[in-house]
Design a protein that fits this description.
The chain is α/β, with parallel strands linked by helices and 321 residues long. The chain is 24% helix and 25% strand. The chain has eight helices and 15 strands. The strands form three sheets. The protein has a seven-stranded parallel sheet with strand order 5-9-4-1-2-3-10, with helices on both faces. Strands 12-11-13-14-15 form a five-stranded parallel sheet. The chain has a three-stranded antiparallel sheet with strand order 6-7-8, with no helix packed on it. The structure holds flavin-adenine dinucleotide. The site of flavin-adenine dinucleotide has 28 residues, from helix 6, helix 7 and helix 8. Keywords: Coiled coil, FAD, Flavoprotein.
Length: 321
């Protein structure tokens, strides 16, 4: 079976040690069967010593670094990793389920006929099969599918943020960095960036590190002003359901759930949310869930630590006092 090489692809050009990558790193370390197994983080972009230091502090055994001084380009990123794969052969590659991570994983999976499982919620190792088992919800969250990639030695998956915890490991830094050089040929540049637009500043809130969130569902459409006033009073960030996005109550980058983002705040106050499985998958990381809904049979109550059977506006009025 041999020693395993586990790779994590950092999806950033500069800030490699994101919380998302550190979470995946912690999971990868748990998948090591022996000291000889090696967890590497692949970084493509600028030389950032303090970022490498953090990755080592969080347990990386090795960093594979390819310097790219010019502006970030997805084609360079993908081709660089494809070229690395020809040279060195990992057993498994874990990608953040970010736009870059998902694009890169999909392209490489087709190119190398390697199995790819999207948005895993857990990974295990099966000794008998000598394969990794990727676990993810399927069929509208009604089952947990266990997926093995059998058509190639290389196995890949993407992982959403806040599925695993990150953990500091050591201050004894090994500085095991393997430099890799990749020269992109101009003819290979398939994607050209014509323009970059920043998000509206008002929408650039740090949702993932918010400690208190108000989750709004369609049932709160008539009282969003009150909701905003109360959220401001408690320093809470407002996020919501897909229905709330469709009703234009919140911006789409605040959608929580299967096709949105996952959050893990200390307190999650859910108002006017029915509790569809596609939504609740995004709030499972919350430490405390309080749900408010006038329908005593609302499915959200099954996931809540405290339930309040009442109209959302009644509770908000109390909180506003
Ligand atoms: C492939 C796919 C992906 C999806 N991805 C997501 C996703 O990422 N995120 C997501 O959220 N959804 C997602 N959905 C949609 C999901 O299935 C639900 O339709 C959606 O979550 C429902 O949103 P809601 O709870 O706001 O609305 P509703 O289901 O309409 O519920 C509204 C609730 O408000 C309550 N209510 C009414 N009046 C009040 C009041 N005055 N005060 C308080 N409560 C009140 C009602 O009792 C009801 O329970 C997805 C669906 C599919 C098919």
């Amino acid at each position: 079976m041999g020693n395993k090489k586990l790779w994590i692809i950092s999806d950033q050009h500069e800030a490699y040690a994101t919380e998302h990558v550190l979470q995946i790193l912690h999971k990868a370390l748990k998948l090591k069967k022996s000291q000889e197994d090696e967890v590497s983080v692949v970084c493509v972009g600028l030389n950032r010593e303090e970022q490498f230091k953090t990755l080592f502090q969080y347990g990386a055994n090795r960093i594979i670094f390819c310097e790219q001084k010019s502006e970030y380009s997805i084609s360079f990123f993908v081709e660089c990793i494809a070229s690395l794969l020809k040279d060195k052969q990992p057993d498994v590659i874990l990608f953040p389920a970010s736009i870059t991570g998902k694009q890169t994983a999909a392209i490489l999976s087709v190119r190398y006929r390697a199995g790819l499982t999207a948005c895993c919620t857990d990974i295990q190792y099966d000794h008998d099969m000598d394969r990794y088992v990727f676990i993810r919800p399927a069929m509208s969250e009604s089952v947990l599918a266990e997926i093995t990639c059998i058509n190639d030695k290389l196995q890949m998956c993407t992982i959403k943020e806040n599925i695993f915890d990150s953990a500091f490991v050591t201050n004894e830094i090994c500085w095991n960095i393997a430099d890799y050089t990749y020269e992109e040929k101009e003819a290979m540049r398939k994607v050209q960036v014509l323009e970059r637009k920043a998000l509206n500043l008002k929408e650039r809130v740090d949702i993932k590190s918010a400690k208190i969130v108000f989750v709004v569902g369609r049932g709160m459409k008539h009282c969003m002003d009150l909701c905003q006033t109360v959220a401001q009073k408690y320093g809470a960030v407002i996020v919501g359901t897909k229905a709330a996005v469709e009703e234009k109550m919140i911006h789409e980058n605040r959608q929580i759930g299967q096709s949105g983002i996952s959050i893990s705040p200390d307190i999650c106050l859910s108002f006017g949310v029915s509790g569809a499985s596609q939504h609740v998958v995004g709030i499972k990381g919350a430490r405390l869930i309080i749900a408010v809904n006038p329908d005593k049979n609302a499915p959200i109550f099954e996931y809540a630590d405290y339930v309040i059977v009442d109209k959302g506006e009644h509770i908000l009025q109390e909180l506003a006092l």
